[in-house]
Each structure stands twice: as C-alpha cells, then as structure tokens.
Amino acid sequence: MTSNEVVKEIGEDIKNGRIGVIPTDTIYGIVCSAMNKRSIEKLYKIRKRNLKKPMIILISSVKDLDLFNIKIDKKIINKYWPGRVSIIVPIKKFEYLHRGKNSLAFRLPNNKYLIKLLKISGPIVAPSANTEGNDPAQTINEAKEYFKDKIDFYVDCGRLKSKPSKIISLLNNNIEIIRK
Fold this sequence. Notes:
- It is a single chain.
- The chain is about 30% helix and about 20% strand.
- It is α/β, with parallel strands linked by helices.
- The protein has a single domain (about 5-180), classed as DHBP synthase.
- It has a nine-stranded mixed β-sheet with strand order 7-1-2-6-3-5-4-8-9.
- The termini are far apart.
C-alpha cells in the first residue's frame, strides 16, 4: 500500500465513525470525526476525558470553518496558520463539542499528510493520546497501554516527542495566549 492509499483508508475510517490513534502535527492524538456526535461521546469515555472540557478541532483549510459558521480575521489566520497554533473562538452550536463553554479551538496544521487525511475525513477532534491526567503517549505501544482494544486502529510513526500546540483565545476581542 502506498502512503496515499493508507491516508485515504484512514480518512475514510474516521469519516465512517471509527476512532484511532494517529500522529498529528504535534504529538500522537486520539482522533475521530468532529461531525459524528456518537464517536465524540465514545472518545470522551475511552479517554476518560472531563465531560466539561471541549476539544481542539483540526481542519484542512480555512474554508472548513464555514461548517461551524466561524469567521476569523484574515490577519490572524495569516499570522498563525498553517502551524502549531490552536485558536479559540466563540461558538453557539455544536454543544457536543464545546460542552457548554460556547467556544472551540481550531487548528490548521502544517503537515501535508495530515492535510490530505483531513480533506478525506473532514474536521477531526485530536486530543493527545492518553487518558485524562496522564502523560501523552510518545509511541503506539504507550497508546495501546492506555486504550488497549477500545480503539479501532493505531497508526505507528515511531517515537513522537513534541510539545502540544500553542493555544490563543479570541474570546474577548483581543488575542490572549492560553498555552505557550
């Protein structure tokens, strides 16, 4: 199988509701479609994630923000994207994603394989591959220790050691750094 065929298969799996652990542009993430409420709820349970904590959503292009009826100033987009910066914006709909916070974080990665996957799968949630309160998995074996057979698929790209994305907030009409 070529890398493009693998990316296509993974993208289709995610689009069809499956949950996996994949390398993101930063670290291994546990991922599923942001548009599939049932998969999102299952991911919260598997990851033992705080039910009030919203997700970061990875998108393939700025145009994907239209799916969420989100507009971000072009100057901000041009400054931070594509890249390892997640931007928190206000949102009313998609409560199953924002968990009552009325805001969501979006990131447009700078990784060609991840962008190819996102063009197939659509927007995905991608919290770090660990159970709540534990260190992010740096290898697939560490991820398997956390999730065992509760995950539909794992994509192994060796050891990944990186920092999570920078997070900025646009909630109060100014740019506030939440995580460096």
